[in-house]
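Dear support,

I submitted the protein below through the web form. The confirmation email said the job was done, but the results page showed an empty box. After a refresh the structure appeared. I'm attaching both so you can tell me whether what I see now is the final result or a partial one.
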Amino acid sequence: MKNYICLHNVRRNGKQYKVGSVIELGGESADILLELGSIEGTTRQLNMPANESTGSMGETDDLHQSILKVIPDLDKDADFTQAGTPKVASVSKLLGRDVSSDDIHLAWAEYQSKDAE
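What the results page shows now:
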C-alpha cells in the first residue's frame, strides 16, 4: 500500500476523498486511478524516512511547515490550479525557493484536514 494525492475527488469504500487529500491504495485500484489521472504518486511517502532525493528530514519538515504557513496568503483566484490545489510557482515565489508539487500536495492535504476540524 502506498500514499497517493487525489487530483480529482475520489470515492472509495464509501468514503469521499477531496482534491489534494491523501489516499492509501495498492494494486489494481491504484493502477486504474493513476491511469485515469485521478491520483498521482508521491516521491516522498508520508511517515517514511527521507532518502537522498528529498534531503534530510529536518529540511523536509521545515519546508513542509513553511508551505503550511504561506497557504493562507495565497489568492484563491490567481494562486490555485483548476483542480483546487496551490500552484507550484505561487508557493515557490512566496517562499523564495523552489518547491515540488509533491511537497505542496502533502502540505495542502494536511492544511485541508486541519481546516475541516
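Response: this is the final, complete result; the empty box was a page-load delay. The chain has four helices and five strands.
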